[in-house]
Write a structure and sequence with these properties.
Helix 1 runs parallel beside helix 2, helix 3 packs parallel to helix 4 and helix 4 runs parallel beside helix 5. Helices cover 49% and strands 15% of the residues. It has a single domain, classed as 3-Layer(aba) Sandwich (Rossmann fold), CATH 3.40.50.720. It has a seven-stranded parallel beta sheet, with helices on both faces. The longest helix has 29 residues. The mean pLDDT is 97. With 253 residues, it is of the alpha/beta class. GO terms for molecular function: sepiapterin reductase (NADP+) activity. Keywords: Cytoplasm, NADP, Oxidoreductase. Belongs to the short-chain dehydrogenases/reductases (SDR) family.
Amino acid sequence: MIYVVITGTSRGLGASLAKLFLEKGFHVIGVARNENKALVQIAQEQGVTYQHYTCHLGDTEQVDKVFSIIANQLFNQQTSTVYFIHNAGTVNPIDTVDKHIPEAINKHVHVNLIAPMIGSSIFLMAANKTEIPLTNVYVTSGAAERSVYGWGAYSATKAGLNRYASTVALEQKELGTPHKAIIFDPSIMDTDMQKEIRSSSESSFQDVEKFKAYKRENNLRSTDKVAQVLVDQLSNSSTIENGKYYSVKNLLS
């Protein structure tokens, strides 16, 4: 059996990924603060399983506990392949660095960077013990490659995630394991995160008018369209290139 573990399945790209993988016949495990009950119905219709684990990715103890439980469940003789999609993320705080408060910084870094690092470590340890192929997929942003006024935390954590993903890929190659790590850039989508960005003031985020224009001019892709691109890439594990940066812009062009 092939399992896909996805963080942030309550809405947005995570919900679309879970739905499309279920429709493709994959077993899915969702990790989020809120359960998406529609996914249970889809799984039943497709004859596969969907399991939800409630977890606040900003809480290190919860992350450690939940990912350990999932890893112990998955890496057994019935499992042939595991995909772990680190999708959940937050753009907040959106403001200049001098306005950031410690609590907001702490939550942001835990959700965007520490949770994927903990999950990767736990799953790789379990995968190495059982020799079941694992592919970690890290959802990134173009902000990782440039400085953006008001996105100091977001740009920093996404840049850190990219470097971490590249290191995971390098290590698995050097160790000669079957495991892979890739980076997926979904570009701009019509999500709640985009709503948060558009609600920012220009003093906090200088590019806010540009993002309002994306919505007004229908330049935001649907999460289903973006999710389908990643589902297509992962549906044939033999074609996945370890360490590759997959950009939805390039894949749809």
